[in-house]
Amino acid sequence: MRRRILLAVLMTTLCLLCACGGKEKEPLQVPMDFRAALLGHGGCAFELEARADTGALLWELTLACELDAGGNGTVTVLAPESIAGISAVSEDGGASLRYAELSLGLGTLPGTELSPAQAPGQLVRAWAQAWIASAGPEEEGLFACFQDGDLSVRSWFDAEGLPTRAELETDGRVRFTGKIKNFTWKDVDDYETAETNLG
Known about the structure:
Helices cover 23% and strands 41% of the residues. It is an alpha+beta fold and 199 residues long. The termini are far apart. A 10-stranded antiparallel beta sheet has the order 5-4-3-2-1-10-9-8-7-6. It contains 3 helices and 10 strands; from the N terminus they run ααβββββαβββββ. The protein has one domain (25-183): outer membrane lipoprotein receptor (LolB), chain A, CATH 2.50.20.
């Protein structure tokens, strides 16, 4: 009798452990769900406390980013104060960069043709399009690596599946890193089609 009770307790415990394990997402599911949401919303906005290594200079920047899923949009410098308020508009997947009436020489990240102001667009582009090379839990949240050619975008996600930190790596070195704050989804535009009344 005692043996049957012990067996029943062990079986119940095993069932409960299996049920608990079933609720957790596979590590790859988190960046995949994030990608689906990013594409569904058409973009996102966030602030980035960033460090950019151009080889010659090390920049510490605070950037306000409003970007579509292709990495296009506006990046505005919030700090340092000497260049605060300057906005860069990234177009064509970062191929061109224009500033309102001012050219800002931040340099480029080694191994890329990206200026530090274009790096946030590359992060978003990788989240939306790049191959997810690996994913797994770490102390500061779930980690995922997005591989886009020679560029690696390493990102960490919180319990809600939103990014909290990201790094851009080339040639085995981190060239751009940022802490992500105030992440929000872009509002989906409501497109109304006007139907012609033929009757």
